[in-house]
Amino acid sequence: MKFVSCLSLFFFVGVSGQAAETGGVRALSLDECVHLALKHNYDIQIERLNPEIAQYNLSGAKGAYEPVFNFGAGRDVVNVPGGVDPKKTGLDAPYELTTDSVGAGITGVAPTGLQYGIQGNASRLKEVTDFSANPGFNLLFPPSGIRTTNQYTSTAAITLQQPLLRNLWTDKYRQTIAISRKNLKISEMALRWRLMNTVNAVQQAYYELVFARESVKVAEQALHLADELASVTQRRVQVGSSPALDAKQAAAQLESVRTSLYSAQQNLAKRQNALKNLISDDFHSWAETTVEPNEGLVTVPDTFSRAESWRTAFDQRPDLAQVRLDLEKQGIILRYRFNQLFPSLDLVGGYGLQSLENSGEAALADIRDRSNPQ
User: Is the pLDDT of residue 124 over 80?
Assistant: First the structure.
């Protein structure tokens, strides 16, 4: 079916529009019909989108391994009025507690199932306490009895968790990616199968149109001969050399041939529409156009080997390749479900640094110097 060459032309040869004028006769070769079908056939246009969709799904599945960045900053203010605590002597001083915090981190999953996280946070705790109502404490915090306390904290940490049994050789992410790869190949095989079927359908429709056109020519010639025979028979009846029954038989034969011509013309129109449906996505522009095949029916001798045909079919038929890929998909699912039968046994590790100081510079210096590791 010359599928390889047709497929190459489909991807690398541009066909300039439909180029079908309204009305008239347009002569087309088989190659031109195949080119038009590969470019404008609706089934191919729809099937061509499936590999693109499958590729997007595969890219989305791989997104599971892209790290997630998080960042947050905020301020929390608490005002507590003064009051009396029966468990204490004196009054509880009113205070305002302000907490400023900022943090950022990265979390993600590696293709081996390793889960990782890197996080850093810094915060400042500022407390303003009003002791002006308590004369004793008022003397400790001159001149107005207001005490201000600042406390800075910083943390940095990395955590790792590697599965050792369940989710070790496969997990939901790897399963989804593997299945998406198979789906991409299946969609490509489905497109190839559609292309092959369309090319085959165009070839059959083209040659059937050629046959229908020749059938009309034969029927027209038969009608011409039948009309001549009816005329000759009528003259013979008039001169008395033939019985009247011969004229009636000749007329009946003429009408039978006329009916055959009408049937041939109807079949020709049907074959015209069948070919137009295969090569066009705008039938209206082709409705008044008569497709005229410029190739005839030529018998080309060829030899076939049954064993070679079987081998070629098993190796190259896209529908068989789709079945094999679907079996491989089921194997991926089976492998994942078998892995999920194992218990969870993970190797977990982490390293962190922390700091608690009275100034932000000192807190960050503790992190830099790894003064307080965890």
Answer: yes
